[in-house]
Amino acid sequence: MEFRYGLDQLDIDIVHGLAEGSIMGRLAPEAIEQIKACRQKVEQMVAADKAVYGINTGFGPLCDTQISADETSQLQENLLITHAVGVGAPIDSRLSKIMMICKVHALSQGYSGARLELIERILYFIDNDLLPAVPCQGSVGASGDLAPLSHLFLPLLGEGDFIMDGQLVPAKEVLAQHNLAPLTLAAKEGLALINGTQFILSHAISGLLKFRYLLDLADVSGAMSLEGFQGGASPFKAELHRIRPFPGSIKVAERLRQLLDGSQNLNSHTDCERVQDPYSIRCMPQVHGASRNAYAHLLELVTIEMNAVTDNPIIISAEEAISGGNFHGQPLAMALDYASIAASELGNISDRRSYLLLEGLYGLPRLLTRSGGLNSGYMIPQYTTAALVTENKSLCFPPSADSIPTSLGQEDHVSMGSISGRQFCQILGNVEKILAIELMYAVQAMDFRRPNTFSTILEENYKLIRAQVPMLEDDRILKDDINNIVTLVENQAITVNI
Predict the structure, then answer these.
(1) Is residue 177 predicted with pLDDT exceeding 80?
(2) Which of 83, 262, 403, 417 could form a disulfide linkage to 200, CB 3.0–4.6 angstroms apart?
(3) Per-residue pLDDT at 58
(4) Number of neighbours of residue 371 by Cβ within 10 angstroms
């Protein structure tokens, strides 16, 4: 499959394919013409010697200082050098690649004024896995992600570092190995490179890909816990959700019906005396469904953003460059904070189901062990889920609710969306571990319901997990068991599609 930058529309799966190398990207011929035409407009502005922000003026509070035509190149290079002030560990190199993919697509639409040569160099980096080192901290999310994007593109100048086999390698060395000379930036190019939301966006895209799987996995782990608990399926009937038709709730109820379809275990207690299950079982459509609604909202906004132009100023004609705020991260920041809460709640309700399975109700032994006393069974892993749930709650503070003025007040309201994106991904990483522990509990509880059988998909997942983690009889070190299931979750090996 091929993607044409500047013409086709990105979605999260295409970005994933481009990052993984299963989809090849190239500049559409139409995009090349757009790029050249916009570049010509910028050069006409420079020649006209009229003050245009970022083209022949200083930046931020220095926007009233005009720069001569001879100094425009130095002005743009100084911009990258002075804004590369990020701190902290480098982000995952895959995020750096996603940032470059999204930046190329934005620059290729013909509103940014970057030269074709510059965009082709970034494409070379993408195609050859030359992935710059980008510190994780330092962006306030307006004028876009200035510090991260500066680090991302310093290697164009032969400055900064690439990450090669997990090590930092000076950009000059890597460029020399590829017989590439450092580029000299022209008017507007530095600003086009570092204005934008690609740091926020890369975290949102990566998070959405993981969130989508975890939403499905939560339904699976919840269904397996329900089977272990011998809960009822009536709360998932279609007629119940038809009269409160939230899309997420309808979807989860449908999935749960399918996940439980054909279960001998479910049929074995149809006429039991229990009237209602606890909320963590009974309300999965409402809780998991609300998280799905939040996912859908973020996905909608991210799809708009990855196909948008977010730098500044925007080149409209040789006479007009609009200095606006398309770089402001607020549209993503607020939705990321909402999605963080939604992801956190998947972990919260999962922990409650794990706890439920330990209580020794309805035929299950306490702590899921037959020989409690001498053995603690599965008492302690729930401490871990409780810790992770609380950590996630602390990470749900919304950075978008905060703003600290920067740039001598010129940039007096910022989104803090970069922090929102990083927190979102941290929360999802914790949810992976919480769901893994629930799955460990659920298969143990299912063992106590044998010889009853379960639906085909739950039996498949039961066998997959049991191949990694045997049934717990006597106490043993559980760290490896937990890590083995976490690895299954991280690799998205557990079947979630019905």
Answers:
(1) yes
(2) 417
(3) 57
(4) 12
Which pLDDT does position 50 carry in this prediction? 74
Q: Which of 5, 53, 213, 338 is catalytic?
A: 53
Nearest of 40, 23, 31, 34 to residue 5 by alpha carbon: 31
**Better pLDDT: 274 or 166:** 166
Q: Would you say 46 and 68 are in contact if contact means Cβ atoms under 8 Å apart? A: no
Let me know if 383 is a catalytic residue.
no
Give the whole-number percent of the chain exceeding pLDDT 70.
96
Residue 62 has pLDDT above 70, yes or no: no
CA angle, residues 127, 75, 79, in degrees to nearest 5: 55
* Vertex 197: Cα angle to 148 and 200 (nearest 5): 75
For residue 132, the cross-strand partners are 162
Residue 206 backbone phi and psi in degrees, to 5: -60, -40
pLDDT of 63 above 60: no
Check: CB of residue 111 under 8 Å from CB of residue 313: no
Reported as half-sphere exposure (CB side, CA atoms, 13 A), residue 264 has a value of 9
Average pLDDT, the chain: 95
Q: Which two tokens stand for residue 228?
A: 């272990």
Q: What is the pTM of this model?
A: 0.96
DSSP state of 364: P
Contacts 24+ apart (CB under 8 A), 298-303: 298/204, 298/208, 298/335, 298/336, 298/338, 298/339, 299/12, 299/208, 301/331, 301/332, 301/335, 302/12, 302/201, 302/204, 302/205, 302/208, 302/332, 302/335, 303/10, 303/11, 303/12
Q: What are the chain's domains?
A: 2-196 (1.10.275.10), 203-490 (1.20.200.10)
